[in-house]
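User: Structure tokens for both sequences below?

Assistant:
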Amino acid sequence: MLRLTHLLFLSLFVSLLAAQKVNIEIKTLPVNNPGNSLYVAGSFNNWNPKDEQYRFSKNSDGEYFFTLKLQPGLYEFKITRGGWDKVECNKDGSMIANRVLKVERDTTILVDIEAWADNIAAKPKTSTASRHVQIMDTAFYIPHLNRKRRIWIYLPENYSTTTARFPVLYMHDGQNIFEDTTSYAGEWGIDEFLDTTSLTTCIVVAIDNSNRRINEYSPYGTERFGKAEGPEYLEFIVKDLKPYIDKHYRTKKNRQNTFIAGSSMGGLISMYAILKYPKVFGGAGVFSPAFWVNPEIQNYTKEYGKRVKGKIYFYAGKQESDEMVADMQEAYNSLKEVSKARLQIIINENGKHNETTWRNEFPEFYYWLMKGKN
């Protein structure tokens, strides 16, 4: 027993030693800077723009500073004043690229902030949604969570000129799928791609996220983020939204033609979906999955992966973090051992944790998913 306790203590000690101290100091702020609190939002806290655990403090000189501990690896972040409408930007109001932080040792980062998005007269965004995109419902009811949600739908170009039925792809973070005016960091351009591909096109149903995004996309509760609502969210898709779509649109209802995909937390819940409902979903796009939020997904994969008979596409970039790639590789290896599912894993040396990267990767996922369906 003493030996076991010693080993556990040693393991914890080594883990703590591996964490590096990162000091972020705000060197300059815009003139007439508003008095809001400042926060750091990044790949290390699921891009939460107002995470109180990541709020800056002020020293005696009124300078903002924040200290966090991170494992060695690559991270991305931005500074906000508590919301993505109050995120740092360029002097002309244009969006800046994510700041990149490479952690190898204790370090101090000095940040210059040129302007805040809400203080610059924003250039009006132009709608980028294809004419084949519709808002199916602005307040579709989610009975399992007693909430309402906007639902988008993309119908293939030949939907109105044929009696054919179509596969259906369900996607999370609906604001970012078709429309630049509703996205905060760019959109996936799914509609533009499907409008021009020569492959069999599918119906795409995109479900908006909410301020409960982390909870709704979490299969398991955590001390940090609270109650898991992922099971209820998926039950809504399977028992309410899918039956509605199948009733009102010409769909191919079977498992082989029903897919689900998302990124980050959306990647996590998509993985859980195909494990929990293998008779409903025949394919999943697991982009940059946030398995670190719910590491229990690894044991669930080992236990129930043998039930999956569909297709799963794993994608992650090395510029996200070493843990992202390692966690995804573990899930892939576990499935490969127990499942007859068709698997694909892509690790992009230059891939980052953002919509631009996922937009670029989506066509490869789609080609792989739909291969043989023409």
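Moving on to the next sequence.
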Amino acid sequence: MPKIEEQNSGADFLKSLGFPTLDVHETSTHFDFTTPGRRVLLIGPMGAGKTEKAAGIWRDAAVALKKSDAVSALTSTGIADRRRVFFIRYAADSVRFQDYPDDALPYRSGYIRCGSNIAKISDSFGLEQVIKDNPDVGTYIIDEASFFDERIAYVARNYSIERGCMFVFPTLMLNFRKEFFNSTARLILDMATDVIPLTAYCEHRDCLSPAFYTYRYYSVDGRECPALYFDPLIIIGGDRQKNSALAPDYAARCDRHHYLPGKEYTFFTLKPLGEEAGKGNPEGLVRELSLLKENPQASLLCKSLKKSYEKDPDRDIYMNAMLPSHLAEKAAAYLFCEQNMIGESLLVKLSYDLGLDTSYLEKTLVENRHPVSFSQGYLL
């Protein structure tokens, strides 16, 4: 099982010096490069400081590298020295880094330069190549590892065991639905040796509670519009302010202020419609997608939200979920790439018959690892 870091040796130290009884919090320590084979998770919502913590590891490594050869014996397995750190970025997530140098490890309050020890990769095979090209590197920081294929968890585990390499994963464990981000996140947690949880303040204007969750919302005419449960799981480059009905914003939120409308609709209505469509009876799904596109207020989704939140004090916020664009496209993409309830040919046919935005669908499906080309029309 992964180890949750919560040791507090600082209390015993201060007691030995004669300090009075008081609340002593966990000591902030420099990073340990001596233990081989660690697989360290830095988890928390967006804005919790995961990447900044990773930058701290980089800075600690720079200090440790100035030590004598005697220290090298403690931090190395073979030629791989864990004080030598390499930063890995997800190749498709380039939008977040446009304002930084190509070799930057950026975080919200700044960045550090990584020089040649940084690479953009698309999958776990790319990670293997980076490791083979840099045999003297002992620590790999893999940003947003949940975006990668599941195999990356086993690549990290095997190299940590065989070469004593350390892997650090500043990544989201939970998605905006408050569920495990995906199977990659689940596997990374399974093989982790250490977990360092981070939190942030809830970013709701009236709250100072700790935030454990990442909240996705859209800003439409100045109104906060929570993302519906069936919103696309992955939206690349979505962590900067957009003020858009199409591109979301994110915030760290506590459970009280994390709004997630449409979950009941997804399981009670959308999935059954998708199941019937997959069996050859698409009429109900066609009718609902058409309403979501042309007249959302008449859709089963709108009726479900009104029923679910009729007496909720935050009813208006929940109902704002109807305001963002591309509701039909999101529903169709969810049924296709997350639930496998409708096939590619049916997805393409629905898109053309209903006049859905195929450019948006192509982008969304590529980001969620289910690419579909709509350029050739459809054959049924």
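User: Anything stand out in the second?

Assistant: Residues 263-367 form one domain.
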